[in-house]
TrEMBL record:
Membrane recorded as keyword: yes
Region (Disordered): 376-443
Protein name: Lipopolysaccharide biosynthesis protein
Transmembrane region(s): 35-58, 248-268
InterPro entries: Bact_polysacc_biosynth/exp, P-loop_NTPase
Domain of life: Bacteria
Key words of the record: Membrane, Transmembrane, Transmembrane helix
Organism of derivation: Micromonospora zingiberis
The keyword Transmembrane helix belongs to this UniProt entry's keyword annotation: yes
Length: 549
C-alpha cells in the first residue's frame, strides 16, 4: 500500500493544560438531563406528598394584658411599664411546667409536643403576652391558645393568692400576740394602784396603737386584687391562619431535587466518562481531528449533514494515496451510516470505492448508499439526469437532447480481455449461438455464474454489485474479497468485541469514529493503546454529534 502515514502520535508528548470553562461544567448536567429531571421529579413528588398527606399546621393567637398587683390600684406604678412587672419572669411562668401540664392534660398530648406547639411572645417595653399555638386543626389551635392564656392567668393568680395568704397569716400571728399583750395590760391596769396604773395605761395605749396598725395593714392586704391580668383578645376560628408553606415546600423539593440530581450527574460522570467535545476526543486519543459530523432530525431518526461528511472525505483523501485501505473503527458504536456517506462522497469525485463489511451489514450499507446518492445534485448523480426543458413550439434539436444524456463510464474490467484458466469456470455454447459468429463451429466462452474463489469476482457479478455515484462507483463485499485497486473502506465491527478492525488497520490505515455523548473515554483510550501497540498510525478521528446541525 502507498498510504500517506501521518507523522507519529501526539498523545505521547506533554499536552498543554486546558482551561475549564463554565460551559464545560454545564455540559455534564445538560447531557445527563434525564437523570437530573428524574431526581427533580422525585423531589417534587416527595414535597407534594408531604404537603397533601401531612396535615398543615394551623396557628391561633390569644393576647393577655399583664397587670401589676399593688395595694392601691389607683397609684401610678412608674414611668416605665417594665419596672412594674418583670416580663421575663412572666414569660417564663407562661411556658412553665404548670401551664404545659394543664395543656397536656386537657388535650391528651405529650408535654413535649405541647411545648413545641406553644410559643409566647413578649413585645419590647410592653406588658403584653401573645400566646401562639399550632395544631392540626383550627378547633385544636383555638382551644390550645385560649387554654394556654387562661392557664397562665390561673397559675399566676394562684401564686399571688399563696403570697397573700402567707402575709395574712403573718399579720394574724402578730395581731394575736399584740392582742394577748393588750389583755394582759388591761388586767394589769385594773389591779394596779395609782402610780403603777398611769404607767400601765401608757403602755396599754401603745399596744392599742400597734394593734390598730396591724389590723389596718391586714385589711389592706386582704383587700388587694390579685388578678394578674386579662385576656384582651381570645383566639377565634375567624382569626386562625394556616402555615402557608405548601408552595415553599414544593419549591424546596424541586430545588433540592435539581441540586441533588446535578451532584448525582457529576458523580455518575466521574465513574462513566463520555466524550463530550473535540478536546476530550483529542486528549483521549492523541490524534488530530478530521472533522465533525452533525446530525439533523428528531431523536432516533437523525441523519448526518452531507456537507460535514464531504469535508471529512476531503480530509481523508488528502492523507491517503490510492490504492489505499482505510478501516473505520469504533469502540462500541455502529458507524454504518458514516461509512456509507464517506463512500458516496469519495466516489462522487471519481474514485472507485470498495466498501467491505464482515458483520452482516452489507444490505444496510447498500440501502444507505442509494439513499445518499439520491441526495446528490443532479449534475453529479447519474441517477437524477436533468430533463431538458421543452420548447414552446414542441420542437427541439438533436444537440439539445444529446447534451443532457449522461454517458456511463465503461467498466474497468472488460469481459473479452480475460482468459479463463479454470476449465470449470466457463461453459460451452453450441455452434452458432454466439451472435455475430462467422465460423459455424465457433464457440463462445462465458464466465461462470457460480461461486468462484473468494478473491476474484467475475466481471458480471462486479458490474451487477456496483453502484454508480457521480464519476466513480461504490462496490460492496467482504474484507476477504476486497479489491486490489482503488480505495477500500472497511466498516469494522466494534473494537471492544472484535479485533478484525485493528487487524485490517495494520494492512493500511485507520480512522477512529467517536460518537459524542456515547463513546466512553476509557474505551477510546483502550482503542488508542491497542492501535499504538499494533503499530497502526491512524489518520485521525471523526466526531459525530447527535445534536441538531
Amino acid at each position: 500500500m502507498t498510504d500517506a502515514q501521518p507523522g507519529g502520535w501526539s498523545g505521547g508528548g506533554t499536552m498543554a493544560a486546558r482551561t475549564v470553562t463554565l460551559t464545560d461544567l454545564l455540559r455534564v448536567p445538560l447531557h445527563r438531563i434525564r437523570l437530573v429531571a428524574a431526581v427533580s421529579v422525585l423531589g417534587l413528588a416527595a414535597a407534594l406528598g408531604y404537603v397533601l398527606l401531612v396535615p398543615g399546621a394551623v396557628t391561633a393567637s390569644a393576647v393577655v394584658a399583664v397587670r401589676p398587683v399593688v395595694t392601691d390600684a389607683f397609684t401610678p406604678s412608674g414611668a416605665a411599664a417594665d419596672r412594674a412587672v418583670n416580663m421575663n419572669v412572666e414569660s417564663g411562668i407562661a411556658t412553665g411546667t404548670d401551664v404545659i401540664s394543664r395543656l397536656a392534660d386537657a388535650g391528651v398530648r405529650d408535654p413535649r409536643d405541647v411545648r413545641d406547639a406553644l410559643e409566647v411572645e413578649v413585645p419590647a417595653g410592653g406588658q403584653i403576652l401573645r400566646f401562639t399555638y399550632k395544631a392540626d386543626s383550627a378547633d385544636s389551635a383555638v382551644h390550645g391558645a385560649n387554654l394556654a392564656a387562661q392557664s397562665y392567668l390561673e397559675v399566676r393568680r394562684a401564686m399571688y393568692e399563696r403570697q397573700r395568704e402567707e402575709m395574712l397569716r403573718s399579720y394574724d400571728e402578730s395581731i394575736e400576740k399584740v392582742a394577748a399583750q393588750q389583755a394582759a395590760l388591761q388586767r394589769r391596769v385594773a389591779n394596779a394602784r395609782d402610780g403603777a396604773r398611769d404607767a400601765a395605761v401608757a403602755e396599754l395605749s401603745g399596744v392599742n396603737n400597734q394593734l390598730t396598725q396591724l389590723n389596718s395593714a391586714r385589711t389592706e392586704i386582704a383587700a388587694v386584687d390579685v388578678n394578674p391580668g386579662w385576656v384582651t383578645r381570645s383566639a377565634e376560628r375567624a382569626l386562625v391562619s394556616s402555615a402557608g408553606r405548601g408552595s415553599l415546600y414544593v419549591a424546596a423539593g424541586v430545588l433540592g431535587g435539581v441540586l441533588f440530581g446535578i451532584v448525582l450527574a457529576f458523580a455518575w460522570e466521574s465513574m462513566d466518562r463520555r466524550i463530550r467535545s473535540v478536546d476530550d476526543g483529542r486528549d483521549a486519543t492523541g490524534l488530530p481531528l478530521l472533522g465533525t459530523v452533525r446530525g439533523r432530525g428528531l431523536r432516533g431518526r437523525r441523519k448526518p449533514v452531507d456537507a460535514d461528511i464531504r469535508y471529512v472525505a476531503m480530509a481523508i483523501a488528502e492523507r491517503v494515496r490510492e490504492p489505499a485501505r482505510v478501516a473505520l473503527l469504533t469502540t462500541r458504536e455502529d458507524q454504518t451510516v458514516l461509512t456509507a456517506g464517506l463512500a458516496v462522497a469519495l466516489a462522487a469525485t471519481g474514485r472507485d470505492v470498495y466498501v467491505a463489511d464482515d458483520s452482516g451489514r452489507l444490505e444496510r450499507l447498500r440501502a444507505t448508499v442509494m439513499t445518499d446518492r439520491g441526495r446528490l445534485p443532479a449534475a453529479v448523480n447519474p441517477g437524477r439526469p436533468t430533463i431538458p426543458k421543452p420548447r414552446p413550439d414542441g420542437s427541439g434539436s438533436v444537440d439539445d437532447v444529446t447534451q443532457q444524456i449522461t454517458v456511463r463510464r465503461p467498466s474497468p474490467h472488460p469481459g473479452a480481455a480475460r482468459v479463463a484458466t479454470d476449465p470449470e469456470a466457463t461453459m460451452m455454447l453450441p455452434p452458432g449461438a454466439a451472435r455475430g459468429a462467422t465460423d459455424p463451429e465457433a464457440t463462445m466462452m462465458l464466465p461462470r455464474m457460480g461461486g468462484g474463489p473468494a478473491s476474484g469476482k467475475s466481471p458480471v457479478a462486479e458490474q451487477a454489485d456496483e453502484v454508480t455515484v457521480g464519476a466513480g462507483g461504490v462496490r460492496f463485499g467482504t474484507w476477504r474479497q476486497r479489491a486490489a485497486q482503488g480505495l477500500v473502506l472497511f466498516n469494522a465491527p466494534p473494537a471492544e468485541a472484535d479485533e478484525r478492525g485493528v487487524a485490517a488497520a495494520r494492512q493500511g490505515t485507520a480512522v477512529v469514529v467517536v460518537e459524542q455523548d456515547r463513546t466512553r473515554q476509557d474505551d477510546l483510550r483502550r482503542l488508542a493503546e491497542r492501535l499504538r501497540a499494533a503499530g497502526v498510525a491512524p489518520l485521525g478521528f471523526v466526531l459525530t454529534r447527535s445534536g441538531r446541525g
